[in-house]
Amino acid sequence: MSELRQSPLHAEHEKLGASFTAFGPWNMPLKYGKELDEHHAVRNAAGMFDLSHMGEIWVNGPDAAAFLSYALISNMDIVKVGKAKYSMIVAEDGGIIDDLISYRFSDTKFLVVPNAGNTDAVWEAFNARTDGFDVELNNESLDVAMIALQGPDSAKILVEQVAEESKEKVENLSYYAATQAKVAGIDTIVARTGYTGEDGFELMIYNADATALWETFAAVEGVTPCGLASRDSLRLEAGMPLYGNELSREITPVEAGMGMAFKKKTADFVGGEVLRQRFEEGPQKVITALTSSERRAARTGAEVYVGDNLVGTVTSGQPSPTLGHPIALALIKTEANLEEGAAVEVDIRGKRYPFTVTKTPFYKRGE
């Protein structure tokens, strides 16, 4: 097994006493103290995450938008400069290679951010799809660090570190938008995106600047360093899928509820014929939200039943720190015809517990 890659912030995490875990090819902080404290810090104030394991692929050239419209399932021509779009890249058979975010910085310039474990696969797929397009691809994934600042206080905390001439621009940045600004004197891509269900920002800088930016926010009262454990519980409460759990090569965007991304798309794209047919036929299984008033949480791999019929499998599940009861996502057969409020049972270590079909997100800020 090859040695795990280290974030440019690895020494900072060690100073804070982090516990580490393998995430794709990276060794990343799982938690620094109690993961519940980190979770609540994001919900109530501000948490800071090292996301330097995420990929960064630049797509430049006159055909950048057309190329991405062909390579991804979404129509990227309609993305306005300064905005971002969540999409998916699929194989020829429609299986999901990755879910990712693309940021448009000009008519001819996009930044694509894939997931850590899928960056190499996305890079390979992009290079295989460039024929006929006037584009240049540049993979800066190992040169760029990313720090996420998430939580209700994140905007106020961030703006205090932004250069005066950019403060208003950052304050007024809309959701799923990005801009460039000096943060703590460092040239930074500031994106108002995130994976926690809270307001927040993802800050992209070169590796050499990562420690300085991290230390700037670490010194701010009310900012809590957070690891991947709390990031997972936060994203689950927000009903956001995780590649390797809800998403995989074994399902298509139709099963993942992303059919609308290409429903009105007229341009050809990789996997398009297969996906359009699947969309017409309807998915065989769908990602479904489950909740329970019991204490036992359903974990990944637990079987879901209606009576004696096995109807699906839990893909993510744990007790919700914010809501105080178990929540889960599961892949459920559509033939089970489960609507919101339907009762199911989940097998947890040989005993079945009652769960109820609900809607996502489980948690929504402001409610």
TrEMBL record:
Which positions fall inside the GCVT N-terminal domain? 9-265
Q: What class of enzyme is it?
A: transferase
- Protein's UniProt keywords contain Transferase: yes
What binding partners and quaternary form does the record give? The glycine cleavage system is composed of four proteins: P, T, L and H.
Q: What is this protein called in UniProt?
A: Aminomethyltransferase
Family stated for the protein in its record = Belongs to the GcvT family.
Give a short account of what the protein does. The glycine cleavage system catalyzes the degradation of glycine.
Domain named Aminomethyltransferase C-terminal is located at 293-364
One Pfam family this sequence matches: GCV_T_C
- Under Enzyme Commission nomenclature, its number is 2.1.2.10
Query: Which keywords does the record carry?
Result: Aminotransferase, Transferase
Q: Name the chemical reaction catalysed here.
A: N(6)-[(R)-S(8)-aminomethyldihydrolipoyl]-L-lysyl-[protein] + (6S)-5,6,7,8-tetrahydrofolate = N(6)-[(R)-dihydrolipoyl]-L-lysyl-[protein] + (6R)-5,10-methylene-5,6,7,8-tetrahydrofolate + NH4(+)
